[in-house]
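Quick start: what a row looks like.
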Amino acid sequence: MAKTTKSRKKKKSSFVDKHKRVLLIVAVVLVAMATVSLPFVLTKASADTIIYIPKGTTMEALTDSLKKNTDDTFASRVTTLLKVSGMKVEYRHGAFKIAKGETALMAAYTLRRGEPSELKFTFNNVRTLDEFATRAGNKFEPSKKDFLKALADPEVCAKLDHTPDNIGCILLADSYKFYWDITPEKLLKNMYNYYVQFWNDERTQKAKKLGLTPDEVVIVASIAEEETSKSDERGKVGRLYINRLQKKMRLQADPTVKFALGDFSIRRITHDMCAYDSPYNTYRVAGLPPGPIRLPEKATIDQILDSKPHDYIFMCAKSDFSGYHDFATDLGSHNANAQRYQAELNKRNIK
């Protein structure tokens, strides 16, 4: 009986010892795992950044991009995790945001399996399609040349109910979000959808009351923006040009001459400039130019639509160079305003 009890105690002791050894091994493994993984959890991004992965990129190129946009330690640990995970980097494509404070482990997951990030695309103070294409080409994967090709393609424009001459009407200056690898055609399609949403029934009816189409309002707004930097004056300026259109008068808008000549630095419009042969030169051609002379802001378009009626058909920059204008209903008053302004130009030796 004593031997049996002693045998049981021995077996129990052996069982406990085995469990202790197992627990010790598990603890050692866990500590080892923690020691190995801890750096990947503790290493964090010091700032927000975007990592771009073009089609067919390599792990070396991705590593270089990480080093350039983060730091060597963070980049090294992210790259290590991607290699260990067996990531096929050549099959990844897009722009991926790594947020400030994001761990190397989280960043590796984002690059390997996360969804691409949309990029905020804001443009304003843009005059030409070339400038728009430059900004888009700098922001997205397609090049400036790719965007210019799409903007000049009659078939692409026709799908958006426009032509290469007036496609600028759909490019309303504002902030948008698109994926980095978006094609020029898709971006223009999305811009057109925004344009359609903007031109709801209410705005379309306001344009109709002015005797204009939505695109014609955009063109008037583009001229008004070029005429004055004073936002509180743009509605008044736009209404003046609408008055001239209704009276079958040529617009004779100086900014259209600058656009036609491709030189916006001109301070003084001369007789020879006004004679320049271009469909955009409203001193030579009647009606509106074929397209906008800049990409106007939505606020300016609304200012034109909501502008108060007046009888002015002439305007001239104020001689105090405040940026505002003197308005007139008759040629005599306008000539007096113009003489004051011309005298001040001469006084300041502005050619």
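That is the whole record. The CA atoms of residues 178 and 186 lie 10 Å apart. The chain has 15 helices and six strands.
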